[in-house]
Amino acid sequence: MKKIPYGRQNITQDDIDAVISVLKSDFLTQGPSIKLFEDAFAEYVGSKFAIAVSNGTAALHLCTLAMNLNPGDKVITTPITFVASANCVRYCGGEVVFADIDSESYLLDINNVRALLEKDINKEIKGIIPVNFAGRVVDLEDFRKLANEFGCWIIEDACHSPGGYFINCQNEKVTSGSGRYADLSIFSFHPVKHIASGEGGMITTNDELLYQKILNLRTHGIQQSSDKKEEDHGIWYYEMQELGYNYRLTDFQAALGLSQLKRATYGLEKRKEIVKFYEESFKGKAFIKQLPGYVEGHAYHLYVIEVIEKRKELVDYLRQQNIFVQIHYIPAHLMPYYKKFGWKKGDLPVSEFYYKNCISLPIFPTLTIEERRFIVEQINKFYAK
Ligand SMILES: *Cc1c(COP(=O)(O)O)cnc(C)c1O
Question: How far is the CA of 56 from the centre of ligand 1 (A)?
Fold first, then answer.
């Protein structure tokens, strides 16, 4: 059996043709494909605006900047995420407050978040960054109510959940990134994610002012619209109004992203098929503590199970069989960098307990039926020993 990673991109001839056609055009960095990709992505998630950027981390940074996060401000997020969800707070000099997760959904536990906000008598907590871990979409309606009560903003880290949704109180499907409850949402097009553009990211929102602000910050804070200029020396004249960055995506990456987006729905269907296969195969197995169970609206970026014992040995064994399972995630608050701020083992027991037994099995649209069977067989074999 050849190497099976936990996630993998799928590049088709159409994708290759799309990139080549841009390479033969006049534009390498931002050109017409950027706007096409942004518009198509906004339509896919149901938001008014979308801004393509160089990667998901840049997207997060632009969002914390746009929300005017200042040194000393505090922001709540989950430790069970890729560290970038927390790091964007640090880029602005803010302080990360990790809240524990719910043991069943693995998402930020809203009761925990509420408790932290109630304790925050000096109103230092300015925002919440919920993460749609593994592809399961956070109930942002509940988070919005809570955020409004305490005057906080919400940045939805939707890197795992393009195409996912949750059901709100009115029984409506609320798409991840739709901008209905979050101020801003962010996505990544890293190759392990649903849609790949090499490096790449997207910000979506329904707020026009935030949209304009982020467009400016993406390119050095340089003001293009003539009505906002303080002076005007002529046709060449531009003004830098605030400190921005170069977080642009190239046009050929946008062409790749756009081409991939056309297969997003198909990819989601494939992922669901794999989940159903795993669920069937592992039902009732004594070595499993928690099978996630099929969840409506889940975008299944990851398929995580919790095993009863011997997690480390299982990972080693599967690697020997060329099955490259992964662990998502080492709790961010236990990273040496965050420990320097006083975080320590025992602070977030549910997250730490989850980390002990979790394992992400391979899931990506091109995972073959033979590979799926092989993975299940090998796990059964390991625990039968
Ligand atoms: C991948 C990822 C990011 C960062 O995206 P990059 O494009 O790699 O910078 C942020 N948050 C989560 C949850 C991610 O999975």
Answer: 5
